């Protein structure tokens, strides 16, 4: 297991640098969710970018924005954003992302889609060559609660062949309930070998009635900052 302090330092490096390189005061900024994004908000605050208009992607990121004293907005008031900075659970060589480890994939995808640019910040453990190489928990799939059993069944069959389980809460009896009142399935796969297969899955999952959103983010980012253990940053861009 990777050292927690090393991971945390790497997250901080990535979060700080992504803001320094990409955010200007006064911009409309989507704020992702997760532990790395905390450093994004910290840096926006530290730089005194109080004219930035921040749109959250979860209850957690809304709290971060409020606690930092930054300007809070939403997509009904600010429907177009200059940039979103968000974390990821895995980034492969083709910039395919797996997101949703924190269960926020629905709002994250909506906010990213409303942005001119999605910049990803992550520690070194998220950096993969092959899809699914490092993230073994599967693809998070947000589903309407009434549909979770039929969806698990459908996912187990062709063309999906995914083994999906209902994500259970840790300090509460029963399932994780998302900020949108839905459940999350984590769907593991044997092999997704080609980019074509991944892109096909991206679309097919959305076609299942009851699937609200999933954590595959394909063709959504061109820039990823990975904090490294030695205090440097690996920037991957295309
Ligand atoms: O997709 C997400 C939440 O739904 C997060 O961005 C992802 O889980 C990464 O989180 P962290 O920065 O804590 O590693």
CATH hierarchy, class of the largest domain: Alpha Beta
CATH architecture of the largest domain: 3-Layer(aba) Sandwich
Low-confidence stretches: none
- The CATH topology of the largest domain turns out to be Rossmann fold
Strand order of the largest sheet: 3-2-1-4-7-13-14
N-to-C CA distance: 31 Å
Number of domains: 2
Heterogens: ribulose-5-phosphate
Beta-strand proportion: 15-25%
- The gyration radius over C-alpha positions equals 17 Å
Report on this structure.
- By secondary structure, this protein is of the alpha/beta class.
- It has two domains: 4-129 and 219-237, Rossmann fold (3-Layer(aba) Sandwich), CATH 3.40.50.1360; 139-215, Alpha-Beta Plaits, CATH 3.30.70.
- It has helices at residues 4-22, 37-46, 59-67, 105-113, 148-156, 195-206; strands at 28-31, 53-56, 71-72, 83-86, 90-91, 97-98, 118-123, 139-143, 163-166, 183-188, 211-214, 216-217, 223-227, 233-237.
- The strands form three sheets. Strands 3-2-1-4-7-13-14 form a seven-stranded mixed sheet, with helices on both faces. The protein has a four-stranded antiparallel sheet with strand order 9-10-8-11.
- The longest helix has 19 residues, at 4-22.
- 46% of the residues are buried.
- Ribulose-5-phosphate (5RP) is lined by residues 32-36, 86-89, 99-105, 108.
């Amino acid at each position: 297991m990777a050292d927690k302090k090393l991971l945390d330092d790497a997250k901080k490096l990535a979060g700080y640098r992504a803001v320094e390189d990409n955010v200007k005061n006064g911009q409309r900024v989507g704020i992702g969710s997760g532990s790395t994004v905390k450093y994004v908000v910290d840096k926006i605050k530290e730089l005194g970018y109080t004219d930035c208009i921040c749109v959250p992607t979860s209850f957690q990121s809304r709290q971060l924005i409020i606690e930092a004293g930054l300007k809070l907005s939403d997509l009904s008031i600010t429907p177009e954003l200059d940039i979103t900075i968000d974390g990821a659970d895995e980034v492969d060589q083709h910039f395919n992302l797996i997101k949703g480890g924190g269960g926020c994939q629905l709002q994250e995808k909506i906010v990213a889609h409303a942005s001119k640019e999605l910049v990803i910040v992550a520690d070194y453990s998220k950096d993969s060559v092959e899809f699914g190489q490092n993230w073994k928990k599967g693809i998070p799939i947000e589903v309407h609660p009434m549909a979770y059993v039929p969806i698990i069944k459908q996912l187990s069959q062709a063309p999906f062949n995914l083994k999906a389980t209902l994500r259970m809460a840790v300090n509460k009896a029963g399932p994780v309930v998302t900020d949108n009142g839905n459940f999350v399935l984590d769907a593991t796969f044997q092999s997704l070998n080609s980019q074509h297969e991944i892109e096909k899955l991206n679309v097919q999952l959305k076609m299942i009635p009851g699937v609200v959103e999933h954590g595959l983010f394909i063709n959504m980012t061109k820039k990823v900052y990975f904090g490294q253990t030695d205090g440097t940053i690996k920037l991957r861009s295309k």
